[in-house]
Amino acid sequence: xxxxxxxxxxxxxxxxxTRVVRQRILCKLMYSIKQYGQQSxxxxxxxxxxxxxxxxxxxxxxxxxxxxxxxxxxxSPDSAQQELLTYLSQQQCGSCQPIEQAWVxxxxxxxxxxxxxxxxxxxxxxxxxxxxxxxxxELPDNIQQAIRSGEISTWVAGRVFKPxxxxxxxxxxxxxxxxxxxPMSSRELxxxxxxxxxxxxxxxxxxxxxPDLLLRVLRCKHDNEVCIALQSGIEDRWIQNIQTxxxxxxxxxxxxxxxxxxxxxxxxxxxxxxxxxxxxxxxQLKMQFQGVKNAYQRDSEYHSRAAxxxxxxxxxxxxxxxxxxxxxxxxxxxxTRKAQTKKVxxxxxxxxxxxxxxxxxxxxxxxxxxx
Length: 371
What we know:
By secondary structure, the chain is α/β, with parallel strands linked by helices.
């Protein structure tokens, strides 16, 4: 096949409706082409008025948005139908989505190709082709157009809009219009649809008009639950789980008479095995609870004794320099004078004794002289 540069206006985009516009990939592709140019050519078949583009619609759109005039194209000698069949068979394990395969198959059938021929070319059975066509036949045109434009994903189309459109086409249309104003992710739409299935008719009408309102309420409720959990701690959650377990045990006890009334021996044995496993789990939980409780009590007693000992040691080694000492009472002035008088009297008595002793010696000496 020859590769040549051809003007964009010469291409017939008759199969553009079989592709999904992926905005994120398109932006990346535009950046790559702007920096490095077109790296791989598109595939087309030649007709008398120009070319029919088979593969490369995203590259074609990127070049068109970049205001390019030409595109590198690989011309196939086969017809458009044969080349489209080749493209479809090559995309079975590629990036082609199931809804895109369904659109291509539907386009081939509109051009006269039978389901058996398509299944034979792809190496599939006819039931596979029928299942792919059901994706198209069960979706309204406005839903399919929303998929092509990238407003909703193929997962949302199959899991939300397909059953919703089958049950209530008006609600599906209203939901699609609401999503154009306020887009939602696939996960958010899955949550929304779960609540929609359990709602009454009045609630459903409000939910399709304002689908994001439910999500805001759920977020607020979740935030409140998180706030309560942070305030209460793990103890309240554990007690709530205990209450839930008690409720489940009551539910298990109610059908016991019916369980053992008409069951076979094998079924009764299976029930006993499961009950024994439950009883074993309860015994393990009880042992763990008692062990943790005993360890907590031992730690509490140890810390209490340590705290008492620390207080006692602190009292024994308390500093005494700051304790005021009681000074001895000072002597009164009268006692001081009596002591001084006593000392003077004792001194005078000693002086008198010394004087008498000297006189006695003098008298003995005079008597000796006279003799």
